Amino acid sequence: MSRYTQVDLAYDFLVNKEKSGDVFTIQELSNFTGWALQTCKTYPSKRWHQFIERNNDEYLVSGVSYLSKAEFRDIHSQKFNSNLVTSNKSILVKKAREFALLAVSVYNNPYSEFKTYGFIVNIIIAYTALFHAIFEKRGMEYIHKDSDGFPIIIDGEEKSWELLECIERYWNGNNSPEKANIKFLVGLRNKIEHRYLPALDLSLCGECQSALNNFETILVDEFGDNYALMTNLATSLQLTRISEQAQIDAMKELQSENYNVVRNYMETYNKDLSEDILDSAKYRLRAFLIPKIGNRKSSCDLSIEFIKTDNLTEDQLENYKNVVAFIKGIEHPYKFKPGKVVELVSKKISGFNMHLHTKSWKYYQARPNVLDSKFKGEYAGFIEGYDSYLYSSKWVDFLVSEFSDKSKLNIVKKVR
Fold first, then answer.
1. In sequence order, what are the residues at sequence separation of 6 or more whose Cβ sits closer than 8 angstroms to the Cβ of residue 61?
2. Which of 190, 199, 220, 396 is positioned for an S-S bond with 253, CB 3.0–4.6 A?
3. d(Cα 152, Cα 136) in Å, to the nearest integer?
4. Is residue 270 part of a domain?
């Protein structure tokens, strides 16, 4: 009998339990493997602790099925070291973590003048490696193939899926704030690759922070707490006292011709997103710090507190929303191109088209007939860079409400 015979039986036992979703008892483990009852009691809480969850006298397995039998043998023999495992999946996870930490290092370096670009380049590599590791774990092929089904070879290597392909496969073509965040950063990388644009750093810190948070969430969900980045990171020290003049200078620079291509990309990309995605912290984190006052010295040790909104009551959540509204100020409400307005309204009002939209803004005087760069109304506003008018969600709601009455729609149809 091999010295691994009973270990392999334990592996088979645990994998079967995980795949069936069944719990098991120590007695069942002992009966299946032939180990003594007392021996079996030590393994779930010590050697296999990262894969076993205990509930009274029952145990639930999670993650063993993603290991090879050889990896399980190493874990059981306590030879397993995540830094030494050489399976392709483990190498990819290690690469993903390393580049995510490098992204943070570049961004938090006070001497770095390319914070945003350095972060984006490294976090994209990190995400790509992470999704490849996930596909390895799931036994999926993640290579491009030609029309005959053979792998496409580039420089002697099989061409792997790029990040945009990975996120389509991972989210099965569905939209999500995390996916929108990644697509935004990939597109932005392509725009700023050959440009020196330091003023972007103040504008994009929220998207960068969300990208990091989302990366760690996916990493931990897929591979366990042992891989969390927070074991290597502390809360970064940000220079929060940015002078008002420095902020004004940065915003002026962002409006200069140098930034036209990138600024137009950012504005256009965000206008095409739904409100749910735009407001999600998984797409863009908007944070504020409030001094926390304690009446004892010991209660003032932690000066920053992160609030998980899932645990708040409705009243508490409303209070936080009021504070956020007070701090963040007013963002311009003009997000929709005419085509987007038509798309949204036509879902509720049959037959609504671009021609009717033109008649509508003329009849209701939603905007001037000529271009006025200073115009900002309730329903429309002139946007620099886009150099035309965009429309607000209020305009969409108004049209849907107004044209629910067919007599009003008929009146607008007669406008010339």
1. 14, 15, 17, 18, 24, 51, 52
2. 199
3. 19
4. yes
Alpha carbons 163 and 176: distance in angstroms, whole number: 15
Question: Same structural domain for residues 36 and 137?
Answer: no
Do 67 and 99 share a domain, yes or no? no
- Rounded to the nearest 10°, the torsion over CA 363, 364, 370, 371 is -150
Q: Is residue 40 part of a domain?
A: yes
Q: Which residue spans within 271-343 are E strands per DSSP?
A: 334-336
- Residue 414, pLDDT > 80, answer yes
pTM: 0.53
pLDDT in tens, 82-104: 443 446 777 888 899 989 988 88
Distance of CA 338 to the CA centre of its chain: 29
User: Cα 358 to the chain's mean position, in Å?
Assistant: 37
Range of the domain at 384: 334-413
119/155 same-domain check: yes
pLDDT tens sequence across 244-283: 444 445 454 445 455 566 667 777 787 778 878 887 888 8
Q: Are residues 190 and 129 in the same domain?
A: yes
